[in-house]
Amino acid sequence: MQKWIMSGLFFVACVFAIVLLFTLPGKDQVAQEAKPTMPEVTLDAAQAEAVVKASCIACHGDQLQGQSGPNLQTIGTVLSAEQLYSTISKGKGGGMMPSFKDKLKDEEIANVALWLSEKK
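-> structure tokens emitted (120 positions)
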């Protein structure tokens, strides 16, 4: 009887391992989530400014001079558009900079990132 129970437990553990093998994200998927790919967009400065006014000035100030968030007036000298896209998408600092991937479209984030990358 004990052999049947042990065999059953072994079978269940094997099935569980196979399910995990096919459902857990792979290394490539985890890497993709860690560094989102910026879509190609054409800069629309007016739209970027509107998104920034609606989403960013509470923390970065109405002139991007910084308040509870850092000064962004010359952020383009420090970070590339791709780095800015990643930061805006994922957030940063354990909640200091929230993620906007669920609040803005990828194209809006890319447009803002391009616009900010030109701030030098």
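The two ends are 76 Å apart (CA to CA).
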